Inverse folding.
């Protein structure tokens, strides 16, 4: 019983290279992280891993209407169903294939598990000097009940190229699903990459989402994370700047209710000079929801003239919601600009009364103020369809019929 | 239109309004004057429905319903409008989006469809002209970084857009220079009809040169201690409040 045992049994049914066996063994020895690990202090997997998940089981076929219901309807779609890549677009200068093995440089327990047993995912390679105008939408569907699955994806963006993504992971049944997901993004010189994550899965979905971004000179990479759904979400978002004049941007909006839990762990490793990083995470907590934010910024000795900005602002809209927020700065260079701030607050009563006195209902007024609070991060997203989805999901979540755009 | 009867309200143990009586008919303009701290803004807030204030007694009859039974938004839907002494900054929402939401929420409550974008834009343009507001202003965030005068003008702009039956202007003149004051007062006058009414709260006579009141009331320590016609404002300008407040203090002692 329990996830670890099921993983062990599953691993005995497949053949693994010596190297992967090693990774698996190191995972099995220590198991999943516990709250004794500093990085998992506020985030317990105990309940989750005691459940009896099947591993990487195939499920049912799904029809097109199911797909369109959950998609943002971009022309270029990459669609997975229970691990299998069923549709992939043809784009000039972009090579797309299914899972291809690659090594990751991070090796904590979760990543070792992914590296050793994962056999699904995508590999996207963008040639030099390619500007991909159309957004690529990546959809992962799960149909199997109570399933644990893993994805391992790699994106390589060649010099002077540009590309944008929107990604969704969607469970199509009411059972619990657990996805351990990893994407490595390699940004070569002068690239511009935007990756948008819409995390709006069903209310009993569990997600551990790992993203490692490696940047070379003059590259710009944005990762935007919108959390509205799911039961448990842990995002590990890591940026490593390996070239001068890089920019790394992170925008996050979490709007949670009921017993939802979401943890954003970010790490920016400034290894080179003249680089910037901006992170803006906004959390809105209703019901008994709980949020965690941990933002680590490392500035290495050679990384002079760094401008690193981090903010985590939270609105607690109920008595029973909580947030644990922690900045972690390690600065070993002397000529850097580094600022961080965390706020936890409620909606402003004066502003609420002001709006109500204009005829805006109390729930709507709260929603408008909440939207206003989150909009600073939402507005940083360049893909208008994603901004619209964020507005709509926010209105849905707050139970109002309002259009925030004009 | 409005009949306030023996209204008593306060915060915790502090009674701020100590029995207000006031009747306002459609088409009238009433000025409420009085020294700082006499309860003018509190009265305005209680009429608009600010929940912070506890109403201890009395009633506020507005066209046959007691406003005290309604939420602030329901009062607004009925046509009550408060121009705030201190308008609130709402970052993240543009002036146009805010006004659109206000109008449509009111229409929703009345069972009407949302206003079309075309009609909304037409109306915005018309009212902006009335108040000499330039276009760039619509996309600015609500009151954020506005000067005192801009905030006040924005209040009257909303009033023009919402077309209320009862407008309460709380110290709308403060923060306005003389040109802006003329423009705003002219706007308010143009919006006057025989079917709506205005309460002008001010402690200077100046505004009342432009918005001529039918009645002037002096509020002191939570009571209306004197009422008269527009000449009362001139008298106050000349003699100050002392002659009235001293008299009242003597009576209450
Ligand atoms: N929110 C509040 N909390 C505590 N006291 C208040 C509050 N609002 C008003 N008061 C008090 O009530 C009195 C009247 O205030 P206010 O209505 O603002 O006067 P005015 O507008 O006539 O200057 C003042 O003494 C003020 O301090
Ligand atoms: Mg006042």
């Amino acid at each position: 019983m329990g996830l670890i045992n099921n993983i062990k049994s599953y691993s005995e049914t497949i053949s693994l290279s010596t190297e992967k066996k090693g990774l698996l063994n190191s995972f099995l020895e220590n198991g999943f992280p516990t709250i004794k690990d500093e990085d998992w202090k506020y985030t317990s997997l105990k309940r989750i891993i005691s459940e009896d998940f099947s591993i990487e089981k195939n499920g049912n076929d799904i029809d097109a209407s199911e797909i369109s219901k959950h998609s943002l309807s971009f022309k270029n779609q990459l669609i997975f169903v229970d691990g299998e890549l069923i549709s992939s677009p043809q784009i000039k200068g972009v090579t797309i294939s299914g899972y291809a093995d690659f090594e990751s440089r991070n090796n904590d327990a979760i990543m070792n598990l992914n590296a050793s047993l994962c056999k699904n995912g995508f590999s996207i390679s963008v040639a030099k000097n390619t500007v991909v105008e159309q957004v690529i939408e990546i959809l992962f569907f799960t149909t199997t009940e109570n399933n644990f699955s893993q994805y391992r994806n790699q994106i390589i963006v060649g010099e002077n190229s540009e590309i944008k993504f929107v990604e969704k992971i969607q469970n199509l049944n009411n059972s619990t699903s657990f996805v351990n997901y990893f994407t490595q993004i390699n940004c070569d010189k002068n690239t511009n990459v935007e990756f948008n994550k819409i995390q709006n899965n069903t209310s009993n979905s569990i997600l551990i989402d790992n993203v490692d971004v490696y940047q070379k000179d003059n590259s710009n990479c944005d990762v935007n994370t919108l959390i509205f759904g799911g039961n448990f979400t842990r995002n590990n978002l890591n940026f490593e700047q390996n070239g001068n004049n890089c920019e790394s941007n992170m925008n996050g909006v979490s709007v949670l209710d009921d017993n939802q839990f979401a943890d954003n762990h970010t790490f920016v490793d400034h290894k080179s000079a003249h680089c910037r990083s901006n992170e803006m995470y906004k959390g809105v907590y209703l019901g008994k929801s709980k949020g965690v934010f941990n933002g680590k910024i490392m500035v290495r000795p050679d990384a002079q003239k760094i401008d690193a900005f981090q903010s985590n602002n939270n609105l607690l809209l109920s008595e029973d919601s909580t947030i644990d927020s922690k900045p972690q700065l390690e600065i070993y260079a002397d000529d850097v600009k580094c600022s961080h701030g965390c706020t936890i607050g409620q909606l402003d009563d004066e502003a609420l009364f002001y709006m109500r006195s204009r005829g805006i209902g109390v729930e709507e007024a709260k929603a408008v103020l909440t939207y206003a609070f989150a909009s600073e991060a939402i507005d940083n997203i360049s893909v208008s369809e994603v901004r619209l989805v964020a507005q709509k999901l926010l209105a849905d979540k707050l139970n109002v019929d309002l259009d925030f755009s004009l | 239109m409005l009949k306030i009867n023996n209204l008593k309200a306060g915060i915790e143990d502090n009674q701020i309004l100590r029995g207000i009586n006031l009747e306002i008919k459609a088409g009238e303009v009433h000025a409420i004057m009085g020294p700082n701290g006499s309860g003018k803004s509190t009265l305005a807030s209680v009429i608009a429905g600010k929940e912070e204030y506890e109403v201890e007694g009395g009633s506020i009859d507005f066209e046959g319903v007691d406003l005290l039974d309604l939420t602030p938004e329901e009062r607004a839907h009925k046509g009550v409008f408060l121009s705030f002494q201190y308008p609130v900054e709402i970052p993240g929402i543009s002036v146009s989006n805010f006004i659109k939401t206000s109008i449509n929420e009111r229409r929703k409550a009345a069972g009407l469809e949302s206003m079309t974008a075309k009609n909304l834009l037409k109306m915005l343009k018309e009212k902006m002209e009335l108040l000499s507001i330039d276009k760039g202003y619509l996309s600015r965030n609500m009151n954020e970084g506005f000067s005192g005068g801009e905030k006040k003008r924005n209040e009257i702009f909303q009033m023009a857009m919402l077309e209320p039956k009862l407008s309460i202007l709380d110290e709308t003149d403060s923060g306005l220079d003389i040109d802006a004051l003329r423009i705003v007062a002219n706007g308010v006058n143009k919006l006057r009809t025989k079917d709506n009414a205005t309460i002008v709260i001010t402690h200077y006579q100046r505004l009342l040169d432009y918005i001529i009141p039918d009645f002037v009331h002096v509020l002191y320590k939570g009571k209306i201690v004197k009422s008269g016609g527009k000449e009362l404002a001139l008298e106050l300008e000349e003699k100050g409040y002392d002659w009235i407040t001293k008299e009242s203090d003597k009576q209450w002692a």
In short: Chain A touches chain B through 28 residues (CB under 8 Å). Residues B 40-41, 85, 171 surround magnesium ion (ligand 2) (CB under 6 Å). The mean pLDDT of chain A is 95. The CA atoms of residues 310 and 340 of chain A lie 5 Å apart.
